[in-house]
Design a protein that fits this description.
single chain, globular, 44 residues, mainly alpha
C-alpha cells in the first residue's frame, strides 16, 4: 500500500506539493481551504 493510501485509510488528509513559503501563511491557506496541492507525489 502506498503511503498516501495508508494515511487516507486512517482519515488523514494528504496534501502534497504545496508551495514553500511562510508557514503561517500556508497554515492560514489550509484553514481557509485555499491551499493548492501541486500533486508532487513521490514515485519510488
Amino acid at each position: 500500500m502506498h503511503a498516501k493510501q495508508l494515511f487516507t485509510s486512517y482519515g488523514i488528509e494528504v496534501i502534497s506539493g504545496a508551495s514553500s513559503g511562510d508557514p503561517k501563511t500556508i497554515v492560514k491557506n489550509w484553514l481557509n481551504g485555499t491551499l493548492i496541492s501541486g500533486g508532487n507525489i513521490c514515485g519510488h
